[in-house]
Amino acid sequence: MQILDDLWIKIAMWLRGLFDSFLPPWAAQLVMDVLGILLLIVVGIVAVLAFTYVERKIIARVGDRYGPNRAGPFGVFQALADAIKMLTKEDVTPTNADRWMFLAAPIVIIIPAVLLYAVLPFGRGMIGVDLSIGVVFIVAMGAIPILSMLMAGWASNNKYALMGGFRAVNQLLSYEVPMVIALLTVVLLAGTMSTVGIVEAQSSVPFILVSPVAFLVYFLAGLAELGRTPFDLLEADSEIVAGYFIEYSGMKFALFFLAEFINLFLVAGMITTLFLGGWQWPILPSWLWFFIKTFAVIFFIMWIRSTFPRLRVDQLLGFAWKALVPLSLVNLFLVALISKLVETVWLRTLIMLGSNIILLAAALLIMGRLFQKREAKARAAGEAAVKRYYAS
Amino acid sequence: MTNEEILSKLKDRFPQVEFQVQAEETKDFTIVVPAASIADVATHLRDHLGFDYLSDVTSVDHPDRFEVVYHLYSMKRGGGVLALKVRLADKEHPEVDSVTPIWPGANFQEREVYDLMGISFKNHPDLRRIMMWDGFPGHPLRKDFENRLYTFKELEPTRPKPPNW
Amino acid sequence: MLKTETITVNVGPQHPSTHGVFRMIITLDGETLVDLKPMFGYLHRGLEKISEGRTYLQAVPLTDRLDYLCSMNNNHAYAIAVEKLADIQVPPRAEYIRVIVAELNRLINHMLGIGFMFNELGAWYTPVVYAFRERERIMDLFEMLCGSRMMYNYVRPGGVSADLPDEFLPMLKKMLPHLQNYVAETRLYLSQNEIFRARAVGIGFLPADIAVANSITGPVLRASGVKYDVRKAEPYSIYDQFDFEVPTQMAGDIYARYLQRLDEMDESLKILRQAVERIPDGEVATKVPARLRPPKGEAYARIEAPKGELGFYLVSDGSTNPYRWRCRPTSLINLSALREMCLGHKVADAVVILGSVDLTLAEVDR
What we know:
heterotrimer, A: mainly alpha, B: alpha/beta, Beta Polymerase, domain 2, 5-stranded mixed sheet, two-stranded parallel sheet, 4 helices, 22% strand, elongated
């Protein structure tokens, strides 16, 4: 198994030896770097194309339908067909649109997404660059697509797109806050900000078992950052008809579409790294574990997409500011406190788990109480109206 | 409350209005009300006789007159229909009071009568065409509106120009 | 203070979720609705004018195209109006068949109403496909009966056009537990979803007195608390021989309309079970001449269609063609209160409220 684990590393070292033999050292390094970048981009985009097909199949099967099954056996060439379709569509720019911003928006959205592949630890010793501030890099790069959504909304010269852009900025900025706080919790537990360090700190127990509240908050905030159901009013099909990229077609639309799925893979990869233990588990090679865990998270996200209706914009923002931020802050405080007070590791883990469960139960109770109050109010209003009618 | 009781109560309340009961040629109990007093009669029907549900406002184009027909029900009492008719002899500019202030549900239906038959309603909050566009020539449901093919060339100049969104 | 402006958005005729070609011009202040103007007429085919050139029997397919999701009920209303005008008696077996197909159509309509309301809420077609699965079963029955899956042209003045095939009643009896199961499943899976309740409770509130003043009928009215159903208030056909109740809800919002449609589906299943037991033998239509000449007169007849009260007003001048053929459109009048229901809510709510009122634009525009 060790052989399989080190497979890619051995191939890389062999290639390095090959280039070293006939190139000066700096050129060999350059060629290796370029090859690494190309590999990351290609793997990323090919995986993402596969996800478009997998998502349609999953949503269809949940809805008692078949999904794509014409393009090849079981429809496996559907992603290829989609790619060809998008490449060959006419590229339309609206009449009064701001041309350069219209062109720049899809570029701005996809570059940070691809850049983030550099800090994901795909396996033991396999990472693009091991930044010591990896987590900060992730937060910073994840905030740039917000700008591009506003650019796309404004440059389209369309009221629907503008509304979509506003909603996007609102939603994404609000959900950065709980996401960062949950990340802080993990950094506190691991003691380091580099992604490799975080994975190695989970060698005894994955952080999902230490602080499930942080996992939940990061998961929900990540769903909202992606713009997926139940938070998908960025592309709310039935109200503002595709939101901020309503006027895009052809390759630019394909870039937006790809960017969403690249972000999906990244968020799932981040959840795996931060909470599920990264590539840590015995028997199978490490990079295989990473992919299995990431796919499990992605399946879960797609499953949620096909079953839940979507939230309205003010409910969304209320949920972020009134529910997630206090929850994650209290959790951070608790984790910090227990970290300082209790020294033995296993006792500390157990106490953190217990306190998290109590916190979650309390939060759910409070929200349930609020719901019931609102329902009672609606029913009372209806009954008053009926009494008024029959009395007249 | 039977139909005769309703009629007698109306006659007591409005002694100067001459109600006619259309006895022949109709399967429902129909009261013909003069056009000038339809608003008062309708208000009295809604407030004191319990007819709170206006089901239908429609119009018929007879050779010598227009007729506006109202079908009323009482939701609290249940029971059958009470049909009110207003006969308008003026076929050039037919006009009658609107019952929208009394039963707001008549809003769209009176607009449709205005659009398709050409009868205008006084005191209607928003009297404009509903099915056809604003500049359409003529009123389609009238008997003298030809049921023929209308070409693009003759109708296109009447269409409104779209606003620049 | 900040100077704010309102923007006017056109939720245009072509839109993925406005049940047809319906146009709303909404004025927004941020995300809150300040004004709403519905505009329709995009599907106006002039059915009333066309019918004046056709005989009474030739106008039956036109009624199919009014609310195409529940064609049997439209045919039924027109048949009752013509029979009232011309004094035609209908044999009892035909009455039972009419009740069976009308209640089956009510089931179809409510399934689709609930399914498409969830489509607007954002649950990507999953409830719709489950509803369509049941609708396919019922449409198989209808195809066996009259040869068509959507525009049935089956219930005619004088009775129905053809007798039930032999396999119809056994297949229907086998299907009733499946349909009951579907209603129970929907209630179980969808009613407690927190996101749905957060989106639906308290939204689109229609008080009972405004509902009656705006002439609203059907499930929308009964969900606001007013217990009025034409089948009980002025029984037509043989509905007075069946044992069913009229459910109402108190809250008057979207959630109440959803629950109301589920309850009405249960009542329809009750009626179906009784009808299937008691259906007598006999002939299925009185002989009505193809060029029927009713005596001079006028008549107004109404039924409880799945969307509300559907009525027909016919004026005859003794010839073979109706002099005035008027359909009281359920959906047009149910739209009267749309503005009151939507003001003060957000854009997303306006679309869902429209879905909960359950329109069919073909009936609005005729």
